[in-house]
Structures are given as structure tokens and as C-alpha cells.
Amino acid sequence: MSKRVVILGAGESGVGAALLAQKQGFDVFVSDLGELKDIFKDELDNAGVLYESKQHTREKIFNADVVVKSPGIPDTVLMIGELREKGIEVISEIEFASRFSKAKYVCITGSNGKTTTTLLTYHILKTAGVNVGLAGNIGQSLARQIALGDDKEWYVLELSSFQLDGMYQFRADIAVLMNITPDHLDRYDYKMENYIQSKFRVVQNQKNDDCFIYCLDDENITKELAKRDIKARQFPFSNFKEVSEGAFCINDEIQFKEREDVMSVFVEQLAIQGQHNRYNTMAAGIVARLFQIRKPVIRESLLSFKGVEHRLERVLSVRGMEFINDSKATNVNSTWYALESMKTKVVWIAGGVDKGNDYGELKELAAQKVKALVCVGVDNAKLLESFKGIVPTIVETNSMQEAVKSAYYLGDKGDTVLLSPACASFDLFENYEHRGRLFKECVRNL
């Protein structure tokens, strides 16, 4: 009798897992409390995979041998607890997919910068001719790629804490931890310690010949490292301190060190600018050095990388005002880096679903740089309270169109209008991409 695999959640990762499970000869069932997108319905229908939407039928789920859970479903959901009590294995799509591939993995996580670092790392490896794929919290799911037979020698994976929470036997050959700042605390009982432990799952199961790349400037990482015995080779990166192996920035030059070998690149030459992008560049560059990619190829890749949509993306200049789309800034720390990189007065568009945000660390920068704050969200009370008396002008809006128009009227020639929400998008938008696309559309319609 074939093993029964039940998949909870029918998004990209869930459908990919379903296709892979079926290919492996399992008895497969997909269940989603929401409405399935037509594209995913068609795929499941064409593959002959049974599914249900707008409900979870217990008798069809609790007879599973393995449950593959969407990262969007919290571990605190009653059904997940009951499944585990029954001894049914509940895992993530990455954990499931990796069991059917001999690939090696570069795994990148962190509260901020992971998408840019993942895409930059992939760009360098791909340019160098490495047989590499891209998956995780970005693009096509790992399970789908393996199911379609497009298996690679290496994968660069962007991993969220939610994905890491469902990973147990999986091992990263190269683990990258960018930073740990408060985010998603609503999923971790509002305890920072729980969130830190989740991020550190990226190093679980690592061996002596694996590699761990991390930010030496991040206090949460260094404090946790002091408590742990990390088996992997360690490669720190820093904007302030010289390191014997890893990367650091000195006199506007980034130096990469691996054993006795040194390579450097001038910050001003990088295609992506800003303090946060120095960190992203250092992490991706260390990975490239570990692959022993030729220095000219690494340098050329760092200078040719185009950046990430919705991350400090220049949209247009209107009446002498620059409009910047940083919709991917879904937490306070990410917005700090955005404001820190601004060279002009800022009209700042922010707001959305608050995830337990503490806006304290933004107040100094806001006082220096922000001339007006445009709130766009269902509930803006916390933003209003935090920046009252700090930002001279604060207005509330109920749509992106209204927010962009307000920002336009509040700005002057030479100013920057910055969408950097510091919040999740789910009150008014489908996701941060939808929010960013709407922003760009509204700017173009001015």
C-alpha cells in the first residue's frame, strides 16, 4: 500500500509538493481552507491529484503518513497540534522536496536582505557556469523543480523562518544568516528568543566541512553564537571590524578573505548601493569565494547585478521628485535601512498590518529626514502615536492612489517619495508585490 501524503495549502509550494508526491508514487490529497487559484486547480486536475477547497475534511487529512504544511499556516493552529499528537509527521515543502534530490544547498535567511542576497548569489553562480537552481521563498518551488526533472547540482534557497520551522533532517551545505531583528513576532508568542531559535535552524545538522556565513555586526546573532557549538567553518562579515576569514568593509572597499587569499572591490563600483547592500554583497561574495569562482567573474557579477523589484526600486521622477518603491520593507529594520540610504528630504509612505512593531529605532532618522508621513492602512493609530511631534506633517489615507496623490502634493522638487511600509500588506493588498505594483501604477498615473 502506498504512503499517503496530505498537503495543507495549495499555493506554489503546496502544488509543487503535490506534483512531486504523485511522481514518487504516493497517495496524494491537497486541502486548502481558502479558494484555489484557477492556475493551480488546472494543474492538479491535469495531474489527477485529488483536492478540496474552502474546507479541511478531517477524515481525509488524519489518515496521512506525512503532512506537508504551507509556511503560511502557523504551528499554533489546532489541527497541526492534533496531527503531531497522533504521531503524524508535519514538515515543510523544502524538507519534503529535499528527500528526493541529491542536490547541495546554499541556504539564505535573515529578517532583511535575504531576497537580494539570494538573487545576487544565484546571479554570480549562474554567471560562473555552476549548475544551479533558485528556490525557496522565491520563484518556482523546490518540489516543483524536482518533480519536473529539472534537478540541479546546487540550489540557492531563500528561507523564511516559517519554512525553517518545518525542517528537521534537511542540511544546508552553506548556511547564510544575514541578520535577526524583530519580525513576525505574532507567530512566535511575541518572544524574540523564539524567533532567534527559528532563524538558527538554518545551521541544524551542519557538519565540519559545511560553511556558516553570518553578520558579525548583528548583536542577536553574536549573542546566540556564544551559546552554541557550531560545527561548520565560520565566515563572518562586518561593516566595521576586520576579520581573518570572511568579508569586511574598510575605506569604502570590501575585502573578501578565504584562507590566505584576498579579493577586494570598491563600494562605489557596486551596482546596488546603500549600507544594507554592502552586507548583501559581502554575504554573496563569500559564497562565491567558497565556490572558488574566478575573481574577475565575481567582480563583474557584483557590478552587473540589477537589484530586486520592490526593494529600493527607483520608479520615476515626477516634477523633480524621485519616487522609490520599497514595498518589500515589511518590518521596521528594513525601513531603517531605506531611510538611512536617503540623501534628500523624504515624504514617507508607511503602514499596513502591524506585527508587533516598535518604531523607536526609526524616530531619530525620521526627525532628520522625513518632512511628511503618509499613512496607508486600515489601522494607523500606532504610526500616528509614534511619530506625532517628530514628523511635521502626518496624513492618513485609505488607498494607494490616495497615498501617492497626498505624497505628491506634500513633496517639493528635490524631495524623495519613499514607499517603505515597515508593515505587512494584508489589510489593503494581496501581498507586498501587489502593494508595490499598485504604487508604481499610481505614480505613473500622476
TrEMBL record:
Pathway: Cell wall biogenesis; peptidoglycan biosynthesis. Its main location: cytoplasm. Residues 310-423 form the Mur ligase C-terminal domain. GO terms for cellular component: cytoplasm. It catalyses: UDP-N-acetyl-alpha-D-muramoyl-L-alanine + D-glutamate + ATP = UDP-N-acetyl-alpha-D-muramoyl-L-alanyl-D-glutamate + ADP + phosphate + H(+). Belongs to the MurCDEF family. This is UDP-N-acetylmuramoylalanine--D-glutamate ligase. It comes from Plebeiibacterium marinum. The lineage of its organism: Bacteria, Pseudomonadati, Bacteroidota, Bacteroidia, Marinilabiliales. The gene is murD.
